[in-house]
Amino acid sequence: MMLTLYGHPISSYTWKVLTALYESGTPFDFITVDQSAYADFIAKWPMGKFPILLDSDRHSMITETSIIIEYLDIYYPGPTRFLPRDVDAALEVRRWDRVFDHLNTTMSKVVLDNIRPEGQHDPIGVEEAKRAIHAIYGVVEAQLGEREFIVGDSFTLADCSAAPALWYGVRNVPLEGKYPRISAYRERLIARPSFARALKESKPLFHLYPGA
Q: Of 26, 50, 70, 71, which residue has the fewest beta carbons closer than 10 angstroms?
């Protein structure tokens, strides 16, 4: 078996897949998509969106983080099952995975505005993004209830998505004391060994990204 993940150590979407790989205990090689590897990466995936996973045994290239994690669940299952076997439960996991990916995308508007040159900021767009983020916080807070994870008491695909989204989200759009369940949930995710490892490995590069 030879799996190779192309990504970047401070990419939230890369963290999502790394968390799943560390959860499953699946061995893999990691290639950082920097200037030296960019041409090779683009040759493999001209859309330029990482991470991507290459599986040499199955002669497969898998793109899109949620699909990569489902692929791992099917072909390289580990102790953590990322999608429940029950169809309705699996749909619920996918739904919350989408919610957290939407949070991630919306949050990036706030972060990227911070590094725009003077005179090129978009205060209206940033305020719209912040309102959208607080709307997401509201539905997540309500969903959590007394649950340990976002869809019950098992760690799933949706939690792989939530961990990086809430790491960056809360650092850039604070909870302001309004969402105690999210705060506690985020701490549980940060303490999860799989996500904690992804964070630890990325910290030497945090200076490259103003939102980290």
A: 26
